[in-house]
Amino acid sequence: MPFVVSPPEPPATFDARVMINFSSLSYDCIAEDCYAFCIENSAPWDSLAWNTLTSNGISLSGNKQIARRCHFKNVDFAISVTGDSCLVEYCKVENFAGDGLRGLGDYDVFQYNFISGCYAVNVNHDDGFQSWSVGPSGVGTDTVRGMIIRGNTIISYLDSAQPLRGHVQGIGCFDGFCKDWLIENNVVFTDTWHGISLYGAIDCRILNNTVLDENFTTPGPPWIGVFAHKNGTPSRGCIIRNNLATAFNLTGSTSDHNIQIKNSDSAYKAFFVDYTKSNFHLKSSSPAIDSGSADVAPSLDLESIARPQGKQIDIGAYEYNPTSAIQTFQFRSSQELKNLGSKDLTTGLKNRVVYSLAGKKCPNNKIYTSGIVITSHNGRITKTLISSRRN
Which class for 126: exposed (0-12), middle (13-18), buried (19 or more C-beta within 10 A)? Predict the structure, then answer.
């Protein structure tokens, strides 16, 4: 059942360090459709409030645990996983002071999550996703195995006027080793150096990611990087392919069919529909279209569009698909959406029309009635009426 976890507002004191905690003694537990927050509106908060009034969102310490379609808002560290074979999918992290996602277990899967709103309020180096190994001799003395990081969107900030704006690092394992990782179809839009960085990588694949600079100033531009372990052991056996990024810094890797995009407004406009609104779909004239390799490439893109749509695989997280463009209408209430009935408003339009009702959730791509598809993306329900002209 969906539930909400929050302290009283405004919180005078809040002692719980983790709002949802599955201990290491538990297994096969599921947190689904939860909303956990420390305060609904953090605008009045200064650094002291962020450091004293926030708690962490959820901790999955046991094996085979799931966090699905959960929303964590105004928290410290949002989602932390130390158990093995855990799944974190379709979650939203909105405003955080620590890390958005942490994964330290073996064979964990983090997929289709949305991370945004980094707040710089202490000395922590904030990460969209961070991992490290821990062995008998401490941090960086073991191996994290089989991690899958797929289809996540990590954006430093959605509002350039955000107070206490931080520099979030994208996806990183800074104290490997990391072995047999798959990092594919992610979007990282940040203003620091680390877009995707692996230190001590063995037989990892980094495929079809889009890594871009949010503001064209230092720090940055962000790179996709594979580096030696901090003890000097070289990375080896990695494949870096079909990525679109502002920089690459690679050792111990097979690297091909990548595009290094110039870090400028004009270059971004040549590739994407509207990067200023975080729309990184490829425009019809994008140089990334049909420029990739099918070898070990993902069969679907970030939005589950089949690859390829054209002659070849496209480069980056999104496969160009002219029918995937969406025109959205936001409704104020469920009654407004209900009043629409089965009327098809796609007449005269080439693309889908989406009716969106914020705050609702449901399974992706579930067909409820003929011609009507309900989808959920980043915690929003959409009702899609499909024109008969679409395939």
Answer: buried
